[in-house]
Amino acid sequence: MIVLCGFSISNYYNKVKLALLEKGVAFTEEVVMTGRKDEAVLGATPLGKIPFIRTEHGSLCESQAILDYLEAAYPNPPLLPADPWQAAKVRELVTFIDLHLELVARELYGKAFFGGEISAANAERIRKLLTRNIAGFRRLAKFAPFVAGAEFTQADCAAWASLGVVAMATKAVYGEDLLGAAGIDWKAYARLVGERPSAQRVSADRKADQERAAAAKAG
């Protein structure tokens, strides 16, 4: 059985968890915090990043590599179109979401969510880059009703897990949701995906873990 390692506050962990649930793959979960330096973790994820999975074949890290493995090992139900071109367009969207939106916005998370600081110059640099990248993403995304079109795909696993985080971070730092300002109705999209049993499970688990973490911190 697959063991999904990481923690439910991570959007990349939830990207993989959503795919596992959508495919009906049996799995268990193991809490592993990012940045661990013990050999048991570094042997599975050399940079100490999460998520990673443990399988009968060994360990595998990097969320997109995991999704591609799941697609090959558990092809039904599919999260990629059978047509090679359409499958490539889904992967294109995942790349935009993961690298050009979330990874850029991540530089804001310290200030947005954890009380850190960011220089005005750095904040402005990130804003310009995000504004450009969001415009690019809007050109690619269909939201008809899912990100890549009529069917739920890997792109939705990435988008549902990350778009809200990007929007909240920009709102916290700039006073403006840059996704919404660009005309992307991510809230309606999040509600749509949130009706799926898989997303409801991910949301409930994340909320429960957040509440436990808050209670532990208060105690």
Overview of this protein structure:
With about 220 residues, the chain is an alpha+beta fold. The chain folds into 2 domains: about 1-75, Glutaredoxin (3-Layer(aba) Sandwich), CATH 3.40.30; about 85-219, Up-down Bundle (Glutathione S-transferase Yfyf (Class Pi), Chain A, domain 2). The chain is built from 10 helices and 4 strands. The protein has helices at about 10-25, 40, 65-75, 85-105, 110-115, 120-140, 155-175, 180, 185-195, 195-219; strands at about 1-5, 25-30, 50-55, 60. A 4-stranded mixed sheet has the order 2-1-3-4, covered by helices on one side. Helix 1 (about 10-25) links the parallel strand 1 and strand 2. It is globular, with a radius of gyration of 17 Å. The chain starts with a strand and ends with a helix. The mean pLDDT is about 95.
What are the defining features of this structure?
single chain; 219 residues; alpha+beta; Glutaredoxin; Glutathione S-transferase Yfyf (Class Pi), Chain A, domain 2; four-stranded mixed sheet; 10 helices; globular
